[in-house]
Amino acid sequence: KSANPQWREQFDFHYFSDRKDMLDIEVWRKDNKKHEELLGTCQVDITALPMKQTNCLELPLEKHPGSLLMLIAVAPCTGVSISDLCVCPLGDPSERQQIAQRYRIKNSFRDMKDIGFLQVKVLKAVDLLAADFSGKSDPFCVLELGNDSLQTHTVYKNLNPEWNKVFTFPIKDIHDVLEVTVFDEDGDKPPDFLGKVAIPLLSV
């Protein structure tokens, strides 16, 4: 019920060089759970922004009245990685020793924001729901921790996909919950939900 909403939300997008350079933004209006209306879109060219500084942008919505006020900072991606199982980070004993030293109790107050990191190995799924008429699915897996999100590639026509990927997240809040969701890729349509599991960090 507001024409001037304030969200004050922060999202971290892990921008890699092989991705497209445009950030697409959509603003939606919700009447109820079933009815949604697009209020406007805008784009930000990430490559045009100066590095290592916070950029204050007022973005007019295309073909619609109104604008979006955003703060966008482009910074080197630290603490986040996606790799194959065969080249898993932390596999080197000397690297593990450096990390153990970094997070020793006597060093815990050196950087209060450096809580630690979470490494997740996504191996495979078994006996997934068949979402296609062919009796198969095109599954991919999305991992979310706080407002951080990473995903696997899609394995086509398979109910027992193997991804064998390693994801590393920086931890910003020890009370966060890792949510792992499996979707079925459905072309240009929104993906179909195949299942989900939630793992509180405090249980690890």
UniProtKB/TrEMBL annotation:
GO molecular function annotations of the record: calcium ion binding
Instruction: Give UniProt keywords alphabetically.
Output: Calcium, Membrane, Metal-binding, Repeat, Transmembrane, Transmembrane helix
UniProt xrefs under Pfam families:
C2
| Gene3D superfamilies (UniProt xref) | C2 domain
Q: How does it sit in the membrane?
A: Multi-pass membrane protein
**InterPro entries attached here?**
C2_dom, C2_domain_sf
Instruction: Name any GO cellular component annotation.
Output: synaptic vesicle membrane
**Keyword Transmembrane helix on entry:** yes
- Under what name is this protein listed? MCTP2 protein
Its annotated compartments are: Membrane
Statement: the UniProt record of this protein carries the keyword Cell division: no
Instruction: State the family it belongs to.
Output: Belongs to the MCTP family.
Q: Cite the C2 domain residue spans from the record.
A: 1-59, 93-204
